[in-house]
């Protein structure tokens, strides 16, 4: 499940250690159109958004 960090609103996987405080979200933000839009390395295990949804 994706998690949105409370400090900069970046999106991470729930097992990522790069955010201190966050809120689980059910859907990725509308601004995310491809896996390349997710900046954190925690998404490198995924090849496409289809694997996340």
When the domains are counted, the total is 1
Q: What is the number of helical segments per DSSP (H or I, 4+ residues)? A: 0
Biggest sheet descriptor:
3 strands, antiparallel
Look at the structure and give the mean pLDDT.
92
The tally of beta strands, per DSSP, is: 3
* Silhouette: globular
Low-confidence stretches: none
Structural class: mainly beta
N- to C-terminal distance = 9 Å
Helix content: under 10%
What is Rg? 10 Å
Percentage beta strand? 15-25%
Order of strands across the main sheet: 2-1-3
List the helices and strands in order. Answer: EEE
Description of the molecule:
With 53 residues, the protein is mostly beta strands. It has one domain. The chain is 0% helix and 19% strand. The chain contains no helices and 3 strands. It has a 3-stranded antiparallel beta sheet, with no helix packed on it. The radius of gyration is 10 Å and the shape is globular. The N and C termini lie close together (9 Å).
List keywords for this structure.
three-stranded antiparallel β-sheet; 53 residues; mainly beta
């Amino acid at each position: 499940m994706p998690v949105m960090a409370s400090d900069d609103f970046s999106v991470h996987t729930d097992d990522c250690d790069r955010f201190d405080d966050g809120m689980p979200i059910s859907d990725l933000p509308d601004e995310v159109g491809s896996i390349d839009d997710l900046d954190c390395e925690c998404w490198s295990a995924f090849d496409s958004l289809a694997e996340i949804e």
